[in-house]
């Protein structure tokens, strides 16, 4: 089937795409076919229902004909006492019998006509039903064949697509592997160059750092020596100044000690002076005042001592 379909691809009502037939067209085609099958089944069911209805009507007509026949037979039988009946009743019975015979003939004719029509309709419906079934069977067979051809073609196309995709994947994998190797080599070359540059830069930085450290150490040593010399000079100046201050303090201490000794001597003479003052006050209290004009007492040693005490110490 697949080879026949490959030889006659134009017989299929589908559009060829990359992965086989168009899915939407195939789905729409089978949906239309399914709808037609449902419509045909509906028509078949309607025809069968109509045939059953006609058969029921025929059976009902037969029952009516049978009932009419029984009535006619019953009415057509003369009564047992017909001999004693009057002529009028006899004529009525004959008329009824004739009418019943006529009705029976008409009913039989109608029943035969209805039976014939029903049989013709049933035969036509049966023939139509069989024709529709045969047509549906043919269409189903044709669709199955077409479906098998379509599926075979789709499988063939899918196999070709898979094979092409695998070949494309292999080619892309080989290209990716080659690119990866090339990128890896470029990366290794770049890393070696960068490593060399970094090593050289580190060496240069180390050399410059050592030189800078040596220069800073030299500068720090010179600065420390300068500061040490300056501190030594300042310390020497401070020591000399301290010695001068110590000498001045020693001289001042001698002076202060001498003054303190003088003050001590003066303090030692104060009790004698107080005793002399007390004696003079007693004498003044015991001697009456000789004149209104006071006479200055003669200066004695006590007064001189008091004047000396009132004088400044450093004079």
UniProtKB/TrEMBL annotation:
Residues 200-235, 281-315 are annotated as: Disordered. Residues 213-226, 306-315 have a biased composition (Basic and acidic residues). Residues 44-71, 126-182 form a coiled coil. Residues 287-305 have a biased composition (Low complexity). Keywords: Coiled coil. It comes from the Bacteria. This is DivIVA protein.
